[in-house]
Amino acid sequence: MIEVQDWGLIDYNEAWERQKQIASEIAEKRNRNVFVVCQHPSVITVGRAGKDSNILLPTKLLESKGIKVIYNDRGGDVTLHNPGQLVGYPIFNLYDYKTDLHWFLREIEETIIELLSTFNIKGERVEGLTGVWIERSRKICAIGLHCSRWVTSHGFALNVCNDLREFDYIVPCGIKGKEVTSISKELGTEIDFNLVKTRCIEFFEKRF
Q1: pTM, to two decimals
Q2: What is the 3 state secondary structure string of the chain?
Q3: Residue 105: closest CA among 74, 78, 138, 139
Q4: How open is the CA angle 14-19-20, to the nearest 5 degrees?
């Protein structure tokens, strides 16, 4: 049984601080597993493997567009969050499941693939790359995790109906020659964000 929290549209740093507090409590008490869903105002985040060269605009120009650059402790390289993207933070005690982070990554990918199938979108994995892809060339969901004492934080970012043009400011996940897509773009029509969020919660509750 997971505890679902919907934080709505929330500043990235505020969400990160909340995650750290919840993760610390779970590591101490081992009494719950929390699944957070939210959206963030436009922000670029850089993971532990991130390279500044994958940010294509100067910091001052990004700031003039209202976009902060934040360095964090998740795995992965550079990514972007903006409104209309469904962000999920599974803050889970893996002792309740399996103490294997690679297994957990694959489980998240599989959950997103199942979710996409309900919209007649065929998501898939690409060998050697994390996340969920369409036709092995268009990334629809990025994943980057942190794990300490077998408690996870950070999570996934599923493009639902967000402005994909902002991804031109970065090399997404440090992978060149690949496109970024969304559910709306794949369907060729606007999609109800809340519908996707509700289904996502249902699939995570079912799997975990």
Answers
A1: 0.97
A2: CCEEEEEEECCHHHHHHHHHHHHHHHHHHCCCCEEEEEECCCEEEECCCCCHHHECCCHHHHHHCCCEEEECCCCCCEEEECCCEEEEEEECEHHHCCCCHHHHHHHHHHHHHHHHHCCCCCEEEECCEEEEEECCCEEEEEEEEEEECCEEEEEEEEECCCCHHHHHHECHHHCCCCEECCHHHHHCCCCCHHHHHHHHHHHHHHHC
A3: 74
A4: 100
Would you please indicate which residues are annotated as catalytic (active-site) residues? 173
CB contact at 8 A, 182 and 94? no
Range of the structural domain that residue 100 is part of: 3-207
Which residue matches tokens 């509750």? 205
Q: Indicate which CATH number applies to the domain containing 69.
A: 3.30.930.10
Q: What is the pLDDT of residues 135-144, one digit of tens each?
A: 999 999 999 9
- Residue linked to tokens 């679902």: 4
**What is the domain count for the chain?**
1
- Range with lowest mean pLDDT among 46-50, 112-116, 148-152, 171-175: 171-175
Question: What is the predicted pLDDT for the residue at 174?
Answer: 82
Report pLDDT digits (tens) over 69-104: 999 999 988 999 999 999 999 999 999 999 999 999
Find, among 85, 6, 5, 72, the residue nearest to 42 by Cα. 85
